[in-house]
């Protein structure tokens, strides 16, 4: 995104709150929130979902992980400590799941899945993401570079959807089309990876149940996805899967927390290490556990001055995955206090051994709070018809 002044394609700098009398730190935080529309209408949202789920999820299976250039997997530089910009804060998680297996096993969160999109070169890509708490139970957290197109002038990546629990072309809880993306102004405009996070509101999920041949009259009346070929008319049977948070729950969110607290990170690694070794398939999620470094790390080639680093030997595809504080193995819930942004090779052996995340501070909370209060709504009705 080679932008100089304001976010392109309809992204707006949030100044209305300032105009209405907000001042001081709150006004400064509000001014740093940028937002961009994704699927602007129900018709566009259904078209996006149909694109990914056609032919039994062929496009989903065709997608490959977001790919980092191997030259960007370098050693990062340790710097000073962190300076929170306000008091620590949290938003409690919602939902919860019964544990499976023994206490020694890590129960994977239902909230984690893949986000799929089409990049500026027309390639089908995916990253990791998670459902998080919001007032309308419709919010996803991931890395900013998994939402905003950093390689072209388009504001957001095309045909963006979230599929929690994704496995081999299947969407067990439905497919959730992105409606509106929120990020920090500095990432939206300047590609500042110190702000490489995004929160996306999603429509209610869609599930497709097959195809039905109908008469010409039924075909003309039907407002959902449909197709006519060979002189025959067909409608795609779909149903409303409900709100994301009602189906899989939502992780909490934390900011301005002390570094060094243990976290569990989750994601779908798939790319090879710089040396060509490819230990992961990207089919199932993996996890790491540890204490992030108490010192900030920097990567000048990505404008990074203050990231958090964690020892973890995963590869791209893990991008956007949550860093969870206080993860409950029984409830499968914790508090998102970071998202995987970059990958590093600290010992110079051409193998990734460190992942980094932006530090979640009060400005992160400002972006999150702007997104958590935005509704999205249904796409399809009880008979598979498109809501106008």
TrEMBL record:
Residues 1-29 form the signal peptide. Coiled coil: none annotated. Keywords: Signal. PANTHER family: SERINE PROTEASE. This is V8-like Glu-specific endopeptidase. It comes from Nonomuraea maritima.
